[in-house]
Amino acid sequence: MTAVPDQRPAPLSPAVGQATEEDMRALFGQSVAVFASLAGPAHVLESANPAFFATIGEERARAGVAIAELMPELASQGFIALLDQVYQTGEPYTGRDARVVLGAGPHAREAFFDFTYEPRRDAGGTVIGIRVIGLETTQVKHAQRLMAEHRALLEQIARQAPLAEVLDGMARCIEHLAPDEVLVSVLLADSDGRHLRHGAAPSLPDFYNQAIDGIATGEGVGSCGTAAHRREPVIVTDIATDPFWLDFRDLAGRAGLAACWSMPILARDGSLLGTFAMYHRTPRVPQETDLALARVFAGTAALAIERHYIEQAKAAAEAHAKAAHDELAKAVRAERELRAEAEQRAAAAAELADRMRAAAAAQAATPRPEQCQLGGSDACDAPAELKIADSWGDSAWGCPAHVEEAILNVRSVFIANEALGGLAAYLNR
């Protein structure tokens, strides 16, 4: 069979609280009461209410046929033997939450019933048939399990459990809830939406997960690549014949996969977050409950993925802010160090200028001292070899070391020793 993307309603908005009324009715609809009247030891169907025929399938809605012929799947499940027992003993039989598989092949479905087989008697008290009265409890049973599992997932998301843990738990939850064997896969979209990466698939073989990790999104790229490209569900009921699976058919065969229903996981703004897929071992046509379950959990996956990305963005913003704060603190420290160094240089320059003024005053009486005048309070015993002056006319004699210190730290100081060639002679020495 080929892909039929328009086989069901458009995908959910990802918010969990926005599931459609149709999905809720499909998952939590009212229980159905069925009735049928059977005649004779062969249990020939005489009459039944519409709910009975809707339950077994409208294509089998006919009377005058033995129930074993109309519903052959009941024999292997023990229900025909129970009818024989009630007919032979005349004792009614009541079952509670009895599991029954209705139909066969890709259209088979699991159901649960509370039922009673009640003998019908003629005027003489002889058993002539059986009345079947049942109440389908399938949706009630599934709803109870679904609510418990779904609540646990939401609690995981609320406490910010790792995304891989949430998605893996969700996949296992759906595999547990589904009436028939199903293998769930979640793929995550790259930021550009062009490729899909492995998110969770606890029951698919590793070689399969590795092979599809990084597949492109595009028309005809399997179920998931096509669903991501179209932004709408793609239902492939038979991988062996579907053209979308031409490039992946051998891979699916090695993994034992025969059907794949995929739908996109969309963010609130409509952007692609990933895909949610349900695989089956045999060709399968989805029931409305299957699709409703998939839509609800695609919404749950969207919530988990968006929450994860929000937390990632928050962590990145916090890291960026911390880095900026650290850089600012580093710059402030450097500025303080430079200011302190400048203040030290200014203090040293002021001290040297004071020494020059003191030396200039001393030179009024002594034209040229024998020892360095620039040593300050520490004094300097070195010979006075060079004369320096500043633009204010102050001058002093000093040793080469103190003269160099003054030139570097006191503004407008230059060599004033004409015998040595002035400033040019000092710089070129």
Automatic annotation (TrEMBL):
Gene3D superfamilies: 3.30.450.40, PAS domain. SUPFAM superfamilies: GAF domain-like (SSF55781). Residues 321-359 form a coiled coil. It comes from Micromonospora fluostatini. The keyword Coiled coil applies. This is GAF domain-containing protein. The keyword Coiled coil applies. Pfam families: GAF_2, PAS_4. Keywords: Coiled coil. Residues 158-315 form the GAF domain.
